[in-house]
Amino acid sequence: MYKFTATIVAVILLSINLKARAFEIEDRKIFEAASVADAGSVTGIGLSELKIISSTDLNYFEPLVRQYQLQNPNVTVDYTVASTAEMFKAIHAEQQPFDLVISSAMDLQMKLVNDGFGKSYLSTQTAQLPSWAKWRDLLFAFSQEPAVVIASAKGMDDLSIPNNRQELITLLRENPDRFRGKIGTYDLRVSGAGYLFATQDVRQSDAFWRLAEVIGSLSPKLYCCSSNMIDDLESGELLLAYNVFGSYAAAGLSEQQDGQIVPMLDFTHLMLRTAMIPKYSDNHLNAGGFIDFLLSDSGKALLSSDAQLPPIQSEPVTESPHLQPIRLGPGLLVYLDQLKRKRFLEQWTDAMIR
Q: Where would a tag sit more exposed on the chain, N or C end, judged by fewer CB atoms within 10 A?
């Protein structure tokens, strides 16, 4: 009888563990709080745990977590990294017990709060955000990052550097042998951020489909993440990559190598990296406190210096009119409609994968 019961318990525990790991993670680190004695002597408050799921690579966010803990030594931070699509599944489908969701896929974040998965939060810091950088006290932007083209200076060599998408199309059409197999971009079937950038491209200009057809004719390499494209450009596997996070490119392209950021002056999307508190958070107070930290002067300074993520500015396009912020709002949900998404991906597949 004992063995039978133990077997049942083991099966139940295994099932619980499988559910906990149903979504795929890329990285995870637990930042332990100070000891109970130290935390108590500083704050007079017992230890607590803040569970964050994020699409931002750990090396970018670790300085922010550690600075936050200097101000909140009683808080252990459990930081999990996953793709934007896996994060959405973790919250929307599985209701995993996270306290804070940080994502670069603005449309998926909007979908979460629109479907009732967000908890309202209001503070002095969030009230000061410009209207385009927040949504109904449920979703808050803390960085604004351009989607850029990166290229190999050696690979471009004698070629003219394109300044807009039409010039890029012409460059690729006139030099197919040089760029065949050497162009990288997102695989929209797996990358939430890539899908967001592509749909915003379409809304901005019909040049996207012409560019997709040209890139598709040159046997492109498709990626889940900006960091992988940057690594392959640095290694010489790629000569050009399209719609890479500008913050990652600025940090990842070493001075010793020949990678360079190519400006697209017809338009450059500014993606807003956002944070939301899930409605079932067990620690929404610390989650809100972390949002306030990201929006504080010290948080912004650390975002810019150590994390190399450009913080929110009230007037981001005053001096650079080609920068186009992707605004938070219901418009982001248009291409998340299942039928529209299916048709968009079919058209993209026809153009890109041959």
A: N
